[in-house]
Protein backbone atom coordinates (compact mmCIF):
# COMPACT_ATOMS: atom_id res chain seq x y z
CA UNK A 1 0.00 0.00 0.00
CA UNK A 2 2.73 2.47 0.95
CA UNK A 3 4.68 1.63 -2.19
CA UNK A 4 1.60 2.28 -4.30
CA UNK A 5 1.06 5.66 -2.67
CA UNK A 6 4.70 6.57 -3.21
CA UNK A 7 4.51 5.64 -6.89
CA UNK A 8 1.36 7.70 -7.37
CA UNK A 9 3.04 10.71 -5.78
CA UNK A 10 6.10 10.30 -8.00
CA UNK A 11 3.87 10.14 -11.08
CA UNK A 12 1.89 13.17 -9.88
CA UNK A 13 4.96 15.44 -9.79
CA UNK A 14 5.65 15.42 -13.58
CA UNK A 15 1.90 15.54 -14.22
CA UNK A 16 1.53 18.75 -12.24
CA UNK A 17 4.66 20.13 -13.93
CA UNK A 18 3.16 19.52 -17.37
CA UNK A 19 -0.08 21.22 -16.32
CA UNK A 20 1.85 24.21 -14.97
CA UNK A 21 3.89 24.47 -18.17
CA UNK A 22 0.89 24.30 -20.50
CA UNK A 23 -1.13 26.79 -18.45
CA UNK A 24 1.81 29.19 -18.14
CA UNK A 25 2.51 29.42 -21.85
CA UNK A 26 -1.17 29.44 -22.82
CA UNK A 27 -1.68 32.49 -20.63
CA UNK A 28 1.25 34.22 -22.33
CA UNK A 29 0.03 33.35 -25.83
CA UNK A 30 -3.47 34.75 -25.18
CA UNK A 31 -3.94 38.29 -26.54
CA UNK A 32 -3.83 41.20 -24.13
CA UNK A 33 -2.05 41.60 -20.85
CA UNK A 34 -2.66 42.53 -17.22
CA UNK A 35 -1.56 46.13 -17.80
CA UNK A 36 -3.47 46.81 -21.02
CA UNK A 37 -5.93 49.50 -20.02
CA UNK A 38 -8.66 51.22 -21.99
CA UNK A 39 -6.61 54.41 -21.79
CA UNK A 40 -2.99 53.70 -22.79
CA UNK A 41 -0.42 54.57 -20.15
CA UNK A 42 2.94 56.20 -20.96
CA UNK A 43 5.42 53.65 -22.25
CA UNK A 44 7.97 54.53 -19.59
CA UNK A 45 5.49 53.79 -16.79
CA UNK A 46 4.46 50.59 -18.51
CA UNK A 47 8.05 49.38 -18.74
CA UNK A 48 8.63 50.18 -15.07
CA UNK A 49 5.58 48.13 -14.07
CA UNK A 50 6.67 45.20 -16.23
CA UNK A 51 10.15 45.36 -14.72
CA UNK A 52 8.72 45.40 -11.19
CA UNK A 53 6.96 42.09 -11.84
CA UNK A 54 9.78 40.59 -13.89
CA UNK A 55 7.65 40.57 -17.03
CA UNK A 56 10.25 42.42 -19.07
CA UNK A 57 12.32 39.25 -19.19
CA UNK A 58 12.06 36.60 -21.93
CA UNK A 59 9.20 34.17 -21.45
CA UNK A 60 11.50 31.24 -20.71
CA UNK A 61 13.21 33.29 -17.98
CA UNK A 62 9.81 34.18 -16.47
CA UNK A 63 8.90 30.49 -16.54
CA UNK A 64 12.04 29.44 -14.71
CA UNK A 65 11.58 32.22 -12.15
CA UNK A 66 8.01 31.10 -11.57
CA UNK A 67 9.10 27.50 -11.01
CA UNK A 68 11.73 28.75 -8.58
CA UNK A 69 9.04 30.55 -6.61
CA UNK A 70 6.84 27.45 -6.59
CA UNK A 71 9.73 25.41 -5.22
CA UNK A 72 9.60 27.79 -2.23
CA UNK A 73 5.76 27.52 -2.05
CA UNK A 74 5.43 31.08 -3.31
CA UNK A 75 2.61 31.63 -5.80
CA UNK A 76 3.65 35.21 -6.36
CA UNK A 77 1.78 38.52 -6.12
CA UNK A 78 -1.49 39.33 -7.82
CA UNK A 79 -1.02 41.53 -10.88
CA UNK A 80 -4.31 43.35 -10.30
CA UNK A 81 -4.65 43.52 -6.52
CA UNK A 82 -1.41 45.25 -5.66
CA UNK A 83 -1.73 44.71 -1.90
CA UNK A 84 -2.49 40.97 -2.09
CA UNK A 85 -0.62 37.82 -2.97
CA UNK A 86 -2.11 34.86 -4.81
CA UNK A 87 -2.07 32.88 -1.57
CA UNK A 88 -4.13 35.62 0.11
CA UNK A 89 -6.73 35.58 -2.65
CA UNK A 90 -7.02 31.77 -2.64
CA UNK A 91 -7.23 31.65 1.17
CA UNK A 92 -10.10 34.15 1.04
CA UNK A 93 -12.12 32.38 -1.64
CA UNK A 94 -11.38 28.71 -1.02
CA UNK A 95 -13.24 28.38 2.33
CA UNK A 96 -16.44 29.61 0.68
CA UNK A 97 -16.07 27.28 -2.30
CA UNK A 98 -14.99 24.36 -0.14
CA UNK A 99 -17.94 24.77 2.24
CA UNK A 100 -20.48 24.89 -0.58
CA UNK A 101 -18.76 22.07 -2.47
CA UNK A 102 -18.49 19.77 0.55
CA UNK A 103 -22.13 20.28 1.48
CA UNK A 104 -23.19 19.76 -2.14
CA UNK A 105 -21.29 16.51 -2.63
CA UNK A 106 -22.55 15.20 0.73
CA UNK A 107 -26.14 16.03 -0.19
CA UNK A 108 -25.72 14.56 -3.67
CA UNK A 109 -24.21 11.33 -2.35
CA UNK A 110 -26.92 10.83 0.28
CA UNK A 111 -29.92 11.68 -1.91
CA UNK A 112 -28.54 10.09 -5.07
CA UNK A 113 -27.70 6.81 -3.33
CA UNK A 114 -31.16 6.57 -1.78
CA UNK A 115 -33.00 7.40 -5.00
CA UNK A 116 -30.82 5.09 -7.09
CA UNK A 117 -31.33 2.21 -4.67
CA UNK A 118 -35.10 2.75 -4.59
CA UNK A 119 -35.23 2.81 -8.39
CA UNK A 120 -33.22 -0.41 -8.63
CA UNK A 121 -35.35 -2.22 -6.04
CA UNK A 122 -38.54 -1.05 -7.80
CA UNK A 123 -37.28 -1.60 -11.34
CA UNK A 124 -39.84 -1.01 -14.12
CA UNK A 125 -42.37 0.29 -11.62
CA UNK A 126 -43.77 3.80 -11.14
CA UNK A 127 -41.10 4.57 -8.53
CA UNK A 128 -38.36 3.65 -10.98
CA UNK A 129 -39.90 5.73 -13.78
CA UNK A 130 -40.30 8.72 -11.48
CA UNK A 131 -36.70 8.58 -10.24
CA UNK A 132 -35.34 8.19 -13.78
CA UNK A 133 -37.47 11.12 -14.93
CA UNK A 134 -36.14 13.27 -12.09
CA UNK A 135 -32.56 12.24 -12.86
CA UNK A 136 -33.00 13.04 -16.54
CA UNK A 137 -34.36 16.50 -15.76
CA UNK A 138 -31.50 17.11 -13.33
CA UNK A 139 -28.91 16.25 -15.97
CA UNK A 140 -30.58 18.16 -18.80
CA UNK A 141 -31.20 21.45 -16.93
CA UNK A 142 -27.84 23.18 -16.28
CA UNK A 143 -27.12 25.11 -13.06
CA UNK A 144 -27.16 28.48 -14.85
CA UNK A 145 -30.86 27.80 -15.55
CA UNK A 146 -31.92 26.11 -12.31
CA UNK A 147 -29.99 28.61 -10.14
CA UNK A 148 -31.83 31.76 -11.26
CA UNK A 149 -35.16 29.91 -11.18
CA UNK A 150 -34.64 28.79 -7.58
CA UNK A 151 -33.46 32.27 -6.59
CA UNK A 152 -36.48 33.83 -8.30
CA UNK A 153 -39.04 31.47 -6.76
CA UNK A 154 -37.71 30.96 -3.22
CA UNK A 155 -35.84 34.25 -2.90
CA UNK A 156 -37.99 36.89 -4.58
CA UNK A 157 -41.50 35.49 -4.95
CA UNK A 158 -41.83 33.46 -1.74
CA UNK A 159 -39.17 35.28 0.29
CA UNK A 160 -38.20 32.14 2.16
CA UNK A 161 -34.45 32.33 1.49
CA UNK A 162 -31.91 35.01 0.54
CA UNK A 163 -31.50 35.12 -3.23
CA UNK A 164 -27.74 35.59 -3.15
CA UNK A 165 -24.62 36.98 -1.56
CA UNK A 166 -23.10 36.51 1.87
CA UNK A 167 -23.75 38.84 4.78
CA UNK A 168 -20.33 40.16 5.87
CA UNK A 169 -21.63 40.55 9.42
CA UNK A 170 -22.61 36.90 9.86
CA UNK A 171 -20.67 35.12 7.11
CA UNK A 172 -21.93 31.80 5.71
CA UNK A 173 -25.20 31.40 7.58
CA UNK A 174 -27.30 28.28 6.80
CA UNK A 175 -30.13 30.15 5.09
CA UNK A 176 -27.69 31.76 2.64
CA UNK A 177 -26.15 28.40 1.77
CA UNK A 178 -29.34 26.50 0.97
CA UNK A 179 -29.92 27.73 -2.59
CA UNK A 180 -26.28 27.55 -3.75
CA UNK A 181 -25.82 24.10 -2.26
CA UNK A 182 -29.05 22.71 -3.72
CA UNK A 183 -28.35 24.22 -7.15
CA UNK A 184 -24.82 22.82 -7.21
CA UNK A 185 -25.97 19.42 -5.94
CA UNK A 186 -28.88 18.86 -8.36
CA UNK A 187 -26.81 17.71 -11.38
CA UNK A 188 -24.66 15.52 -9.12
CA UNK A 189 -27.77 13.99 -7.54
CA UNK A 190 -29.02 13.08 -11.00
CA UNK A 191 -25.71 11.52 -12.06
CA UNK A 192 -25.22 9.59 -8.81
CA UNK A 193 -28.82 8.36 -8.97
CA UNK A 194 -28.29 6.85 -12.41
CA UNK A 195 -24.93 5.34 -11.44
CA UNK A 196 -26.34 3.86 -8.24
CA UNK A 197 -29.39 2.44 -10.00
CA UNK A 198 -27.35 0.68 -12.67
CA UNK A 199 -24.85 -0.63 -10.13
CA UNK A 200 -27.51 -1.84 -7.70
CA UNK A 201 -29.41 -3.67 -10.45
CA UNK A 202 -26.25 -5.50 -11.43
CA UNK A 203 -25.42 -6.41 -7.82
CA UNK A 204 -28.85 -7.71 -6.81
CA UNK A 205 -28.78 -10.05 -9.81
CA UNK A 206 -25.43 -11.53 -8.81
CA UNK A 207 -25.02 -15.06 -7.47
CA UNK A 208 -23.85 -14.15 -3.97
CA UNK A 209 -27.00 -12.05 -3.40
CA UNK A 210 -29.13 -15.03 -4.44
CA UNK A 211 -27.13 -17.18 -2.04
CA UNK A 212 -27.68 -14.70 0.82
CA UNK A 213 -31.41 -14.74 0.18
CA UNK A 214 -31.45 -18.54 -0.05
CA UNK A 215 -29.85 -18.72 3.40
CA UNK A 216 -32.87 -16.93 4.82
CA UNK A 217 -31.50 -13.41 5.32
CA UNK A 218 -34.13 -10.71 5.38
CA UNK A 219 -34.45 -8.22 2.54
CA UNK A 220 -33.01 -5.24 4.46
CA UNK A 221 -30.08 -7.34 5.69
CA UNK A 222 -29.25 -8.44 2.15
CA UNK A 223 -29.41 -4.89 0.85
CA UNK A 224 -27.54 -3.08 3.62
CA UNK A 225 -24.96 -5.72 4.53
CA UNK A 226 -24.16 -7.11 1.10
CA UNK A 227 -25.62 -5.32 -1.92
CA UNK A 228 -25.05 -1.72 -0.87
CA UNK A 229 -21.34 -2.17 -0.18
CA UNK A 230 -20.71 -3.55 -3.65
CA UNK A 231 -23.10 -1.19 -5.44
CA UNK A 232 -21.40 1.90 -4.09
CA UNK A 233 -18.01 0.99 -5.59
CA UNK A 234 -18.60 2.72 -8.98
CA UNK A 235 -19.52 5.90 -7.10
CA UNK A 236 -16.12 5.96 -5.39
CA UNK A 237 -14.32 6.31 -8.73
CA UNK A 238 -16.69 9.08 -9.78
CA UNK A 239 -16.51 11.04 -6.53
CA UNK A 240 -12.78 11.76 -6.88
CA UNK A 241 -12.86 14.25 -9.78
CA UNK A 242 -16.42 15.33 -8.93
CA UNK A 243 -15.40 16.35 -5.42
CA UNK A 244 -12.41 18.28 -6.75
CA UNK A 245 -14.65 20.20 -9.13
CA UNK A 246 -17.15 21.06 -6.41
CA UNK A 247 -14.57 21.92 -3.76
CA UNK A 248 -12.80 24.42 -6.00
CA UNK A 249 -16.09 26.14 -6.63
CA UNK A 250 -18.58 26.37 -9.43
CA UNK A 251 -18.10 29.35 -11.70
CA UNK A 252 -21.79 29.49 -12.55
CA UNK A 253 -23.08 29.10 -8.99
CA UNK A 254 -20.78 31.74 -7.58
CA UNK A 255 -21.69 34.18 -10.35
CA UNK A 256 -25.44 33.60 -10.01
CA UNK A 257 -25.52 33.90 -6.22
CA UNK A 258 -22.75 36.51 -5.97
CA UNK A 259 -20.51 34.40 -3.74
CA UNK A 260 -16.87 35.42 -3.14
CA UNK A 261 -15.54 31.96 -3.95
CA UNK A 262 -12.49 30.84 -5.83
CA UNK A 263 -14.44 30.06 -9.00
CA UNK A 264 -15.62 33.64 -9.34
CA UNK A 265 -12.11 34.91 -8.66
CA UNK A 266 -10.77 32.60 -11.34
CA UNK A 267 -13.12 34.05 -13.96
CA UNK A 268 -12.30 37.63 -13.01
CA UNK A 269 -8.58 36.88 -13.04
CA UNK A 270 -8.81 35.27 -16.48
CA UNK A 271 -10.71 38.24 -17.91
CA UNK A 272 -8.23 40.68 -16.39
CA UNK A 273 -5.21 38.59 -17.45
CA UNK A 274 -4.09 38.24 -13.85
CA UNK A 275 -1.65 35.49 -14.76
CA UNK A 276 -0.49 34.59 -11.28
CA UNK A 277 -4.00 34.17 -9.84
CA UNK A 278 -5.05 31.98 -12.77
CA UNK A 279 -1.94 29.86 -12.34
CA UNK A 280 -2.53 29.54 -8.60
CA UNK A 281 -6.11 28.29 -9.08
CA UNK A 282 -5.02 25.87 -11.83
CA UNK A 283 -2.33 24.41 -9.56
CA UNK A 284 -4.81 24.09 -6.69
CA UNK A 285 -7.37 22.38 -8.92
CA UNK A 286 -4.81 19.96 -10.40
CA UNK A 287 -3.49 19.08 -6.94
CA UNK A 288 -6.99 18.43 -5.58
CA UNK A 289 -7.84 16.15 -8.51
CA UNK A 290 -4.70 14.09 -7.98
CA UNK A 291 -5.12 13.87 -4.20
CA UNK A 292 -8.84 13.08 -4.28
CA UNK A 293 -8.38 10.46 -7.01
CA UNK A 294 -5.71 8.81 -4.87
CA UNK A 295 -8.03 8.84 -1.86
CA UNK A 296 -10.82 7.35 -4.02
CA UNK A 297 -8.54 4.53 -5.18
CA UNK A 298 -7.48 3.75 -1.61
CA UNK A 299 -11.09 3.82 -0.42
CA UNK A 300 -12.01 1.51 -3.30
CA UNK A 301 -9.47 -1.02 -2.01
CA UNK A 302 -10.89 -0.75 1.51
CA UNK A 303 -14.44 -1.47 0.33
CA UNK A 304 -13.41 -4.18 -2.14
CA UNK A 305 -11.12 -6.81 -0.55
CA UNK A 306 -10.35 -8.22 -4.01
CA UNK A 307 -8.37 -5.10 -4.90
CA UNK A 308 -4.81 -5.16 -3.65
CA UNK A 309 -2.26 -2.37 -4.20
CA UNK A 310 1.01 -4.21 -3.77
Automatic annotation (TrEMBL):
Membrane-spanning intervals of the chain: 9-30, 100-121, 133-157, 177-196, 235-257, 277-303
Keywords of the record: Cell membrane, Membrane, Transmembrane, Transmembrane helix, Transport
SUPFAM superfamilies: MetI-like
Domain of life: Bacteria
GO cellular component: plasma membrane
Family statement: Belongs to the binding-protein-dependent transport system permease family.
Any Pfam family the entry gives: BPD_transp_1_N
Residues in the signal sequence: none
Record's subcellular location: Cell membrane
Record-annotated ABC transmembrane type-1 domain positions: 94-300
Bilayer topology term: Multi-pass membrane protein
GO terms of biological process kind: transmembrane transport
Record's protein name: Oligopeptide transporter permease
Amino acid sequence: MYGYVARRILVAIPTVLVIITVAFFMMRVAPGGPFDLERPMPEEIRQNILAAYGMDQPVWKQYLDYLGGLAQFDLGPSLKFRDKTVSDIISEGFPVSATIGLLSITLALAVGSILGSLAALRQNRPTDYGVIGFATVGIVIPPFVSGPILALVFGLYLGWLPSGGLDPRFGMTPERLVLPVVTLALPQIAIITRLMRASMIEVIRSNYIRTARAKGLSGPAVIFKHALRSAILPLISYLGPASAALLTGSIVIEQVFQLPGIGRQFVQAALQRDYTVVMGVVILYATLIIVLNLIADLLYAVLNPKVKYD
